[in-house]
Amino acid sequence: MTKSADMIKTMDDGEMVSVSRKVAAPVDVVWQMVSDLSRMGDWSPENDGGSWRGADPTWPGGPSVGSVFRGDNHRGRRTWKTKVTVIDSDPPRRFAFRLKIGALGGCDWIYDIEPTDAGCCVTESWIDERTRALKFVGWLFTGVSDRASHNRANMEATLEHLAMAAEGVSRSD
């Protein structure tokens, strides 16, 4: 479907990037897709999926706050792993997780899903709370110096791929 305007703004405690897209699929279908982090590689250009630590919390009911996921990522030939913790799980409206590296800070990834007449609108947000040291380490691992612009482009692609997949699932039901 169509996407709404994206946003980059500076917050008191970090930079935030948000991208929204209308999806012709029910909120519960989209929530199930974004909360199953092992499938994130199906639509993200940088994430390759990964695995839940401990028991797989994906279903029934989805992941709960405190669930831990180990993500696999790539950019070109560079690869790296991340560990994230679910910080909000409110089916089928909101799902969020945090990447935190001790005192070096980290970032939050948030998916808000609102119903519309034609399906839903999903907003993906990234809040950067990394210290300068962690930004430098991130640049060494990923080769990305402007993470906000890079993430905005990847988030647009992610939501486009997510919409195509969700709309396909919705049509086949």
Structural topology:
Layout (H helix, E strand, L loop, with lengths): L6 E5 L2 E10 L3 H9 L11 E7 L14 E8 L2 E13 L3 E7 L5 E11 L2 E10 L3 H11 L4 H26 L1
Antiparallel strand pairs: 1-2, 2-8, 3-4, 4-5, 5-6, 6-7, 7-8
Helix pairs in contact: 1-3
Characterization of this structure:
- The chain has about 170 residues and is of the alpha+beta class.
- The chain has one domain (about 5-170): START domain (Alpha-D-Glucose-1,6-Bisphosphate, Chain A, domain 4, 2-Layer Sandwich), CATH 3.30.530.
- It has three helices and eight strands, in the order ββαββββββαα.
- It has helices at about 25-35, 130-140, 145-170; strands at about 5-10, 15-25, 45-55, 70-75, 80-90, 95-100, 105-115, 120-130.
- An eight-stranded antiparallel β-sheet has the order 1-2-8-7-6-5-4-3.
- Helix 1 (about 25-35) packs across helix 3.
- The longest helix has 26 residues, at about 145-170.
- The radius of gyration is 15 Å and the shape is globular.
- The protein starts with 6 loop residues before the first strand and ends with a helix.
- Residues about 1-10 have low confidence and may be disordered.
Note the main attributes of this structure.
Alpha-D-Glucose-1,6-Bisphosphate, Chain A, domain 4; 3 helices; single chain; 173 residues; 8-stranded antiparallel sheet; alpha+beta; 27% helix
Strand order, sheet with most strands: 1-2-8-7-6-5-4-3
Name of the CATH class: Alpha Beta
Helix content: 25-40%
Total separate domains = 1
CATH topology group: Alpha-D-Glucose-1,6-Bisphosphate, Chain A, domain 4
Structural class based on helices, strands and sheet pairing: alpha+beta
In angstroms, what is the radius of gyration?
15 Å
Strand content: 35-45%
